[in-house]
Amino acid sequence: MPAPIGIAGAGAWGTALANVAAAAGQDVILWMRTAEQAEAIARSRTNERFLPGIRLHDRVRPIADLSTLTSAAAVLLVTPSQTTRTMAGQLAEILPADTPLVLCAKGIERETNAFLCDVVEDVRPDAPVAVLSGPSFADDVARGLPTAVTLACRDGELARTLATVLSGPTFRVYHGTDLRGVEIGGAAKNVLAIACGAVAGRGLGESAKAALIARGFAELLRFARAYGGEAETLMGLSGLGDLVLTCSSAQSRNFAFGLRLGHGMSLQDAAAGKLVEGTASAHALVTLARARNVDMPVAEAVDQVLGGLCTIDAAVDSLMNRPVKSEQ
Ligand SMILES: NC(=O)c1ccc[n+]([C@@H]2O[C@H](COP(=O)([O-])OP(=O)(O)OC[C@H]3O[C@@H](n4cnc5c(N)ncnc54)[C@H](O)[C@@H]3O)[C@@H](O)[C@H]2O)c1
Ligand SMILES: O=P(O)(O)OC[C@H](O)CO
Fold first, then answer.
1. Domain spanning 5-177 has what CATH number?
2. How far apart are alpha carbons 187 and 50 in whole angstroms?
3. Which ligand is the nearest neighbour of the Cα of 192?
4. Are 63 and 209 in contact (CB under 8 A)?
5. pTM of model > 0.90
6. pLDDT value at position 2?
């Protein structure tokens, strides 16, 4: 694309994606909230607060003036899920109506229980929206370690174009049209990863963790089907791929949060000052599940623990002692 790629949000993932797009040959405008931060990053060519030790690609231009994104060929929205409505609203005021917005946050809007694509379409109706999701730790990606992710957009041609633009030698982007399936995978895996971390923290063993991933995947699939996602999508990178990654590594902030809870840390301290998207989306996820009679016992257990209504041990006990049932 001749016009630059715009990135709104210069946290760990926004900065890693800026380097990815630059490595794929694009000029990149990386927006952040303060001029001080933009100047510091422009000077040092590193984002020491959010992605320490990684050199910013020469093609990336840090800026603090959101209106600079007006010229972008596409804008990647990479701020926390709960800021999506505000950010999309601000972008709607400055972007041409045909500029695609690619959602990179993983979550559900807590106040309205709305999927993030719906939030964006609420504030920017008729403009193209896409989702990028899949197994991808910012630090791995920024260090050039290989991974593959999915980009979905209802307009299949646009999905293909965006996937091509962002793909590089170590970042392979598949494309598809199942927007709902892709965004559900990213939002739900964060909640399930908290459960896996908690189980690890309680020292319940690798077998328990594998069982939890499998049962978590079963409920993720049921939920996605109930909300119009395709099973094949959930079996792919943005579903199973990201679930397995996030549920099995303390590099995940959601898993690490669960791990600390399992070690006995308080809900307040366990986040350790990091963004833990599963805590913001758990209640919305189970509320949406109940609204369509989808059984999500693992997500329910996480929501109960986060609400202070249940201990981890009691939650495990109640999951293990549900009535015997068919696996399907
Ligand atoms: N870090 C990863 O490995 C990774 C990978 C894939 C997806 N994601 C998703 O990307 C999203 C962002 O995650 P991250 O890792 O970059 O988080 P982060 O905590 O590293 O960075 C968050 C960024 O958002 C900005 N921000 C915070 N509050 C804001 C507000 N109210 N308005 C505007 N900007 C605000 C911060 O200044 C920062 O630049 C999350 O939804 C996460 O699930 C992260
Ligand atoms: O650190 P987490 O738990 O937010 O996970 C980061 C990415 O979503 C992994 O794909």
1. 3.40.50.720
2. 21
3. 2
4. no
5. yes
6. 76
